[in-house]
Structure formats: structure tokens, C-alpha cells
Write a sequence for this structure.
């Protein structure tokens, strides 16, 4: 069965507990449930991970080779800084959708730069937690069209 890795970066474990005006009140655990429910309707499986450590995220991306067919990546603040994550995404050759809860282009200037965007299949941002559903639908559709 098609398998999609949903990988979340730093501080996203705090979702739903602080700054609800920016990130909403849904917790990461709620989003994980949403992802599994969406996966069921799409006929795919989802692995859901979160790390606050850049190197651990690189390791997760490497480990996706041969295991997952697509990746949904909310790299958090590493989006705007990490050449290492960009290189990892580019090296594994697994289609990757960049995802953000907030519209990073409507926020501070430093959030307008994304290293991930340079190597991503596409980007979804600004739709809050529902963005994860949209990203899974887009990835399932992409992988189906490619098969
Ligand atoms: O909008 C997104 O999904 C972001 O990836 C979230 C990152 C931010 O650095 C990116 O620019 C955009 C921050 C995640 C921090 O999440 C928190 C959640 C609750 C309380 C504090 C931080």
C-alpha cells in the first residue's frame, strides 16, 4: 500500500497550547488523528513523526528511502534556515510537499525564504490544520497519477 511520511519539525509539539491566534487550537495529536482518518479514505498509510532536532529530521528523511512513497514536510523554522534539510530532501528523490499551518508569506520577511521550496513538489500554507488533509490528498493524487 502507498505509504506517506508526515514529518514535523521544531516546536510543533507545542501546537494547541500557545499562540492559538497564529497556529490554531488543534494539537499535534489531533492532527495525527486527522491524518490517519484522511489516509483511510484515500487508501494509503501514514507514518507521523515530530522532532525538534535538525539532524534527527535528516535521519528520518534518509530512512524514508525504500519505506515511504511521499513525504509531507512541515519543517517549522528550519524551513527558513536549513540547507541540510534541503539537501536531504533533494538526495532521497521522494516527492515532498512543503506544508505550513500559517501563510508564511503574510508574516515576517525572514519567513518568506524557504530552502525546502527549492526542492519540493509543491507548497501548501495558510490553511491551518486542514492543510495536512489537503497535502495528503494532493500527494495521494500525485502518486496515483505517477503509478
Ligand atoms: O506555519 C507553520 O506551520 C510554520 O512551519 C510553524 C513554525 C514557523 O517557524 C514557520 O515559520 C511556519 C513554528 C512552529 C511553532 O509552533 C508553535 C506552536 C505553538 C506555540 C508556539 C510555537
Amino acid at each position: 500500500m502507498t505509504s506517506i511520511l508526515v514529518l514535523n519539525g521544531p516546536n510543533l509539539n507545542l501546537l494547541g497550547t500557545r499562540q492559538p491566534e497564529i497556529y490554531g487550537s488543534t494539537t499535534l495529536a489531533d492532527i495525527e488523528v486527522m491524518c490517519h482518518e484522511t489516509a483511510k479514505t484515500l487508501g494509503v498509510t501514514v507514518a507521523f513523526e515530530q522532532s525538534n532536532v535538525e539532524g534527527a529530521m535528516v535521519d528520518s528523511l534518509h530512512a524514508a528511502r525504500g519505506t515511504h512513497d511521499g513525504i509531507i514536510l512541515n519543517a517549522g523554522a528550519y524551513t527558513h534556515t536549513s540547507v541540510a534539510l534541503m539537501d536531504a530532501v533533494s538526495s532521497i528523490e521522494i516527492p515532498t510537499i512543503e506544508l505550513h499551518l500559517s501563510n508564511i508569506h503574510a508574516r515576517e520577511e525572514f519567513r518568506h525564504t524557504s530552502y525546502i521550496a527549492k526542492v519540493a513538489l509543491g507548497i501548501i500554507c495558510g490553511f491551518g490544520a486542514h492543510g495536512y488533509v489537503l497535502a495528503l490528498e494532493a500527494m495521494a493524487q500525485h502518486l496515483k497519477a505517477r503509478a
Q: What stands out?
A: The chain has a mean pLDDT of 97. The pocket of CA2 is lined by residues 11-12, 14-15, 18-19, 23, 74, 76-77, 79, 100-102, 104, 111 (CB under 6 Å).
